[in-house]
Amino acid sequence: MATSTLTLEEIREQILQDEQKAAFLARIERGEKIEATDWMPDEYRQLLIRLIHMHGISEVMGCYPEKEWVPKAPNLRRKLAIMAKVQDEVGHGQLLLRVAEDLAAPLNRTRDDLMADLFVSKVKFHNVFHMEARTWADAGLIGWLVDGAAICTQASLLDTSYAPYGRMLKRICAEESFHMQHGESICLALAQGTAKQRAMLQDALERWWEALMFFFGPPEMSEAAKKMLVYKIRTKTNEELRQKYLNRYVPRIQALGLKIPDPNLRYDETKQRWVYTEPDWDKFYRIVRDNQGPKSRERIELRRQAHEGNRWVREAMTRVRARMTG
Amino acid sequence: MREGIYDVYEVFVQHNKTDHHVHVGSVLAPSPDLALHVARENFLRRDRAVSIWVVRREDIHATSYQDPDFFARETDKTYREVSGYTENGRLWRMFKQRMMNIEEVVEDMRGDDR
Ligand SMILES: [Fe+2]
Ligand SMILES: [Fe+2]
Prior knowledge:
heterodimer; A: Ferritin; globular; B: 2 domains; three-stranded antiparallel β-sheet; 3 strands; elongated; binds fe (ii) ion
């Protein structure tokens, strides 16, 4: 994913060269929303598929770190809650894949294809879901800080130019409000707990901080990401989102008495922004592009087994119907 | 239907018998029966409801977004709307009375204070 030196204005100029694309962009710039059945430039469709496919698959893969904690949750209420949360993420995955497959239908691609892309590394998923959830504090921290980051991204996408995505995100954001409280509740309990529990939370933060800094992607955006901004598929840059996230979460992390493992992290009053140690973006690409994260292979394999294991059910159900309807 | 390939069903949820069914999204399912189940799992993990409809997408007849003329409003329609009668408030004041609106009448009729 090479970063692009083109400015947004230059990309916009390129789009305006083409008469049809220019008319389409004019609709978006007037604030009109695009529907699945509207004519759209191929590149707009491809950008949407790329974004929503990755979003949907990330929701599905996001179940794995937390589902490991369903059998080990500390009490029944926590078990029910984390189970409900994992269920929500599966649901989000299904809703988003629905939106993606309507876009992919003209390209003759089905749900099965979108799912199978994961097994051959043709679709990426969020860096955070390649990581291990070692302790119960990791499970809590995922709910608090990873869902927190996902909520920031999803909330910023509510204004997307593609209406079906925006409508689904409304529903998803409503459910995320529970995920937020769920994660915070676990972390607040640990922060009030014994020295050992507080240390567990601190350890989890140290394990997850780098992944959280990776979450919004590199400050230098790819050409595809810049095109998404021009077409108003998304409306905020990676760095804008990261800054808003840090604004909201750093004071809360510190208020719990936790120490963020970055000696350079501070708010620069003159620049009006957070300064931080630049994370190792090559490592980020090895995780999301090459699936070289600590749990990448294992979780993709689990997903593949589930998908293949259920194949006979999918086939049997459609075979019965095909016979009934002739 | 190709083997292993499901149909798209549009989902309509009725939350209450006094409300209409409202479109909430779509699901992929091999049969109407399963579409109802998947719809419940996808859209009603929290909200209460009394009924779900699922309709195969290909059975839906819809207007086209490409034909905005279908919804054209060439003429002024304020004579059909409350906003066309703002004058009444001023006139009632001349007669030393206050203008009513339907919301307060509804509230009055449904309330049990006498
Ligand atoms: Fe989610
Ligand atoms: Fe979530």
